[in-house]
Design brief:
By secondary structure, the chain is of the alpha+beta class. It has five helices and six strands, in the order E-H-H-E-E-H-E-E-H-H-E. Helices cover 38% and strands 25% of the residues.
Length: 184
């Protein structure tokens, strides 16, 4: 069974990183798509750029929709893991699966140069999501109470991860996010 997926991110890249290095990092994804270069990657949606590296702005733009099979997620995960050391900062990568029955499933990945930068990006996204949700009902003071608690949870989580057995640093992480419709 094949699914349709949309992958979206603007990933800042370190100065001095070449297009060739980006393509090598993304090689699992490119191989999955049977493409040799970023320019070969075409989206099912004509207005989407696919994968584009702007070497003047040092930004990897990902706005791609395609049909996928079972091994897609492993190829994407490996690509993001390879890309992490080339990132200027950690950012989120939105992945939305569109099922044949009309349902959609969202997955939020994070890619960045270090585990700590990814942790901070996850914190930032969580604070934004929680604040947006709470501000529908509560004033800023009450919302701040909850965001303070979220910050404390992230601080405690990082201390636990840091004091535990040394794990290899991953260049990407996965998180779940409530399903939202893509608005672009």
């Amino acid at each position: 069974m094949r699914l349709e997926v949309h992958v979206h991110a603007d990933i800042p890249i370190l100065e001095g990183v070449s297009r060739k290095q980006i393509e090598q990092a993304l090689s699992p994804w490119l191989e999955y798509l049977d493409c040799d270069t970023l320019a070969d990657v075409k989206s099912l949606e004509a207005e989407e750029p696919g994968l584009r590296f702007d070497d003047k702005e040092l930004m990897l733009q990902v706005c791609w929709t395609g049909e996928i099979g079972r091994s897609f997620h492993a190829a994407l995960d490996a690509s993001l893991d390879n890309l992490g050391p080339y990132c200027y900062e950690a950012v989120e990568v939105d992945v939305t699966l569109y099922h044949e029955n009309g349902e959609q499933e969202s997955r939020l990945l994070f890619v960045g140069p270090t585990a700590q930068s990814i942790h901070e990006a996850q914190r930032r996204c969580m604070i934004e999501d929680v604040s947006a949700l709470l501000e529908r009902q509560f004033d800023k003071e009450r919302t701040a109470e909850v965001t303070t608690l979220v910050n404390q949870l992230f601080d405690r989580d990082w201390k636990e991860k840091s004091s535990g057995a040394k794990q290899p640093e991953r260049a990407f992480e996965t998180a779940t996010r409530p399903s939202r419709k893509n608005l672009h």
